[in-house]
Specification:
Blueprint lengths: L1 H7 L9 E7 L2 H10 L7 E7 L18 E7 L10 H17 L5 E3 L3 E4 L2 E12 L4 E10 L17 H5 L5 H22 L6 H6 L6 E7 L2 E10 L5 E5 L4 E4 L4 E4 L7
Parallel strand pairs: 1-2
Antiparallel strand pairs: 2-3, 3-7, 4-5, 5-6, 6-7, 8-9, 8-12, 9-10, 10-11
Bound molecules: adenosine-5'-diphosphate.
The site of adenosine-5'-diphosphate has 15 residues, from β6.
């Protein structure tokens, strides 16, 4: 598997240095340990299953050994720490572009960083960072893609699905990993040219499922309805509130849902 991934990679740095595990607690946790050492920019950690896969805000990521992708990339960006949260959107864009290369079914991004097919979540992304005031030590971006799962636990039935279930297509995980790394390497370079989403946000918006829709913004205890217009150059979601005012929402603390369910 490891050799197969390395053989298929068409990148100059992303994924060239690779750690592969049949099982691990969390690829993000392992990549953070590598980040504390002198492991180079672009190193990836790939596992066949995770015993303690994580989502945002302490949530869990279901990670069975089902032919899915659990992968984390370690980055050592030169830009300031405030910019790092946008990398989550850069990765979402890259993963969506990649899955589109393989399937005929529509693939969308749910802001900021989930990938959905037929209204179901097939990928989640978790970005974590270690930084000083002005400098980033390292960033890790974890990706969980449900590629081949046939079924999900009851609690996830309504929101989660896999590429196989939604498209009926069998995709090779190694080919998808290689495509994600290729798209990410290109998108990261475009991001670094401006250190924001200027080069990417229009293409991102074209794949944004929440665009031009009523959404529910979940902000801690509070929730409110708004009309989502798309992201701006800083990756913030522009929303029009019920009183007509337009606001930019930052991805850090909020989640977005459809009025009745996950996206609808
Ligand atoms: P959010 O969509 O609220 O930002 P996260 O990106 O942090 O959530 O992902 C964690 C959530 O995703 C979990 O609380 C659970 O609802 C859901 N989830 C967990 N494992 C999977 C999986 N393998 N596929 C799809 N959804 C999952």
């Amino acid at each position: 598997m490891k050799e197969e991934i390395l053989r298929q990679l068409q990148t100059t740095w992303a994924g060239r240095n690779l750690y592969y595990f049949s099982e691990i607690d969390s690829t993000n946790t392992y990549a953070k340990q590598l980040g504390k050492q002198s492991e180079p920019h672009g190193t990836i950690v790939v596992a066949q299953s995770q015993s303690a896969g994580r989502g945002r805000l302490g949530r869990k990521w279901n990670s069975p050994n089902d032919g899915n992708i659990y992968m984390t990339i370690l980055l050592r960006p030169k830009f300031s720490p405030q910019k790092a949260s946008m990398l989550t959107l850069v990765m979402a864009y890259s993963v969506a572009m990649s899955i589109r290369e393989f399937v005929d079914t529509s693939v969308y991004i749910k802001w900021p960083n989930d990938i959905v097919m037929n209204g179901k979540k097939i990928c989640g992304i978790l970005t974590e960072m270690s930084a000083e005031v002005d400098d980033i030590n390292y960033v890790v971006i974890g990706i969980g893609v449900n590629v081949m799962s046939h079924e999900f636990p009851d609690a996830l039935q309504d929101i989660a699905s896999s590429i196989l279930i939604e498209s009926g297509q069998n995709i090779s995980e190694t080919a998808l990993i290689s495509s994600i790394m290729r798209n990410f390497e290109q998108a990261y370079q475009r991001f670094c040219e401006t250190e924001d989403m200027s080069n990417i946000y229009q293409e991102y918006n074209q794949m944004l499922i929440n665009r031009n829709r009523q959404v529910r913004i979940l902000d801690g205890e509070n929730g409110y309805e708004a009309y989502a217009m798309g992201i701006d150059k800083m990756g913030q979601l522009l929303i029009r509130k019920q009183d007509g005012s337009v606001e930019a929402v930052f991805a850090g603390e909020v989640s977005v849902r459809g009025l009745y369910g996950y996206v609808e």
